[in-house]
Amino acid sequence: MVAEQQVAEVAQKVAKDKYGLDVELVTFNDYVLPNEALSKGDIDANAFQHKPYLDQQLKDRGYKLVAVGNTFVYPIAGYSKKIKSLDELQDGSQVAVPNDPTNLWSFTAAAAKSGLGSN
Q1: What is the pLDDT of residues 67-83, one digit of tens each?
Q2: 91 φ, ψ to 5°?
Q3: Distance from the first to the final alpha carbon of the chain
Q4: According to the model, what pLDDT value does residue 118 have?
Q5: Residue 17 — very low, low, confident or very high, per pLDDT cuts 50/70/90?
Q6: In the prediction, which pLDDT does 104 show?
Q7: Where are the transmembrane segments (predicted)?
Q8: Burial environment of residue 34 by CB neighbours within 10 A (0 to 12, 13 to 18, 19 or more)
């Protein structure tokens, strides 16, 4: 179970126990779908994105959504089947990066902090 789901399940329980609210958790498998569902009225709220991503979605897709509160920002992570540490990357290694401007910025900042690409 991923951290986001664990946090959502705790929030769901608190909403029920403390406020008497029945919250249905909805899982999406595509990063664009939560805002689309919210815009269409299929869901009442979502919590998955940082402000720069929301701003870009509002600009690109014309959604009339507003941020009503803050939530967690989870750190960016790297995954590999071949290496166990960034130190194992060699010149010419291929690294996949996010294809949207806001998450590309997060990746670039994390890469710079880790020393990746500083040669």
Answers
A1: 999 887 777 778 899 99
A2: -55, 135
A3: 37
A4: 58
A5: very high
A6: 80
A7: none
A8: buried
Residue given tokens 């890469």 in the structure block: 111
Cα–Cα distances in angstroms (integers) from residue 25 to residues 15, 35, 44, in the given order: 12, 15, 11
Specify whether the CB–CB gap between 107 and 113 falls below 8 A: no
The share of the chain scoring above pLDDT 90, in percent, equals 46
Contact 88, 63 (CB under 8 A): no
pTM of the complete model: 0.67
Measured CA to CA in angstroms, residue 51 lies from 12, 31, 104 at distances of 23, 14, 14
Domains with residue ranges and CATH for the chain: 3-61 (3.40.190.10), 75-119 (no CATH)
* CA angle (48 as vertex; 45, 50 as ends), nearest 5: 110
Supply 61's token pair: 């897709």
Mean pLDDT, all residues of the chain: 88
SS3 55: helix
- Give 83's contacts (C-beta < 8 A, 6+ positions apart): 89
Q: Which pLDDT does position 40 carry in this prediction?
A: 98
